[in-house]
Design a protein that fits this description.
about 80% helix; 4 helices; single chain; mainly alpha
Length: about 140
C-alpha cells in the first residue's frame, strides 16, 4: 500500500531525529505527528476490513487480530505521550514505530490479499448478476467453432 510506504519514510526520518532531541516536548510533538498520521489511516482500514471481510467465514480471527494491533499501536503512542522523561519517550516512540511497521507487514501479507480476493469475487458476482438481468434486447452470445 502506498500509504504504508510514505509512513515508513516518515518513520525513518523520525527515528533519525530521535537521538538529537533536546526536550521531552520535542518527543511528544513527534509522537503527536505519528498519531495524527495513523488516526484516519487506521479508521479507514478498519472500515475497509469490516466491509469486505465481516461476512466471510474464517476471517473473524484475522479481523480481530488487526483490530488488536491497532489498539496496541494506539496504546504505545499514548504511553510515549505520557512518558516522564526524554529517554523513556524515545524508547516508547521507537517501540510504537516498530509495532506499526510489523502491523503494516501483517496487513500487506495477510489482510490485503484477503480483501483483494473478496473484492475480486464480489466484482465478478456483481458483473454476472448485472449480465443476467440486463435488457433482453442484448444480442445473444454465439460461439463459432
Amino acid at each position: 500500500m502506498v500509504e504504508h510506504t510514505v509512513f515508513s519514510k516518515v518513520f525513518n526520518q523520525i527515528e533519525r531525529a530521535l537521538p538529537g532531541l533536546k526536550t521531552l516536548e520535542e518527543a511528544r510533538l513527534l509522537g503527536s505527528l505519528v498519531e495524527a498520521l495513523l488516526q484516519n489511516h487506521g479508521s479507514t482500514e478498519e472500515n475497509l476490513f469490516y466491509l469486505t471481510l465481516d461476512h466471510e467465514p474464517g476471517t473473524k480471527s484475522q479481523m480481530d487480530q488487526l483490530h488488536r494491533e491497532h489498539q496496541e499501536i494506539d496504546a504505545r503512542l499514548r504511553q510515549a505521550q505520557l512518558a516522564g522523561n526524554l529517554e523513556e519517550a524515545r524508547q516508547l516512540l521507537t517501540a510504537a514505530l516498530q509495532t506499526t511497521r510489523e502491523h503494516f507487514r501483517h496487513e500487506e501479507r495477510v489482510a490485503f490479499p484477503l480483501i483483494e480476493q473478496q473484492l475480486h469475487a464480489a466484482a465478478q458476482k456483481e458483473f454476472g448478476h448485472a449480465w443476467m438481468h440486463a435488457d433482453s434486447d442484448r444480442p445473444a452470445l454465439v460461439v463459432q467453432p
